[in-house]
Every structure is written in structure tokens, then in C-alpha cells.
Amino acid sequence: MLEFTGEFKDGAMRYTGESLAQDGKPVIDRLTFFPLAEGRVRQLWEQSADKGKTWNIVFDGTYVRKKN
């Protein structure tokens, strides 16, 4: 289970939380949703296993609004 807290800051929705890696060690999760042109949104998910000193990208994707 993932649990995040967040806020809209500096033009993006930013969430943080903690989870466990596959080896059982704690990691910090950081998700950021950036608004893009034409109603698109970029989601960047990063994790840190060293208390925020370094970050690895878990997911970097763009959401596009479905045309009717």
C-alpha cells in the first residue's frame, strides 16, 4: 500500500511518501504532476533509498486527454 501527502507548489502537484523496496528497506517516494500544453500532464515518480541524497526515476510518463 502506498500513502502520500501532497500540495500544489511551484506550478505542480507534488506528493511524497514512504514505502518498502523489494528487499524490505525503506525508500522515499516522490511523485510530481506537471501541467503541459494542450491539457496534457507529465507524471514523474522518483525514489530515494538514501534518505533523499540521490533519486532514481521509477516512472516518467505523459497523460493525454482522450478526444471525444
Bulk shape: elongated
> Roughly how many Å is the radius of gyration?
14 Å
Main sheet makeup: 5 strands, antiparallel
**Which structural class fits the helix and strand makeup?**
mainly beta
Spatial gap, N to C terminus: 34 Å
| Count of strand segments | 5
Nearest-integer average pLDDT: 95
What oligomeric state best describes the polypeptide chains here? Answer: single chain
Low-confidence stretches: none
Q: Can you give the helix content as a percent range?
A: under 10%
State which percent range the strand residues make up: over 45%
Give the helix/strand layout:
Elements: E1 4-9, E2 12-20, E3 26-35, E4 41-48, E5 56-63
Antiparallel strand pairs: 1-2, 2-3, 3-4, 4-5
Summarize the structure in words.
Helix content is 0%, strand content 60%. The protein has no helices and five strands. The chain is elongated, with a radius of gyration of 14 Å. The N and C termini lie far apart (34 Å).
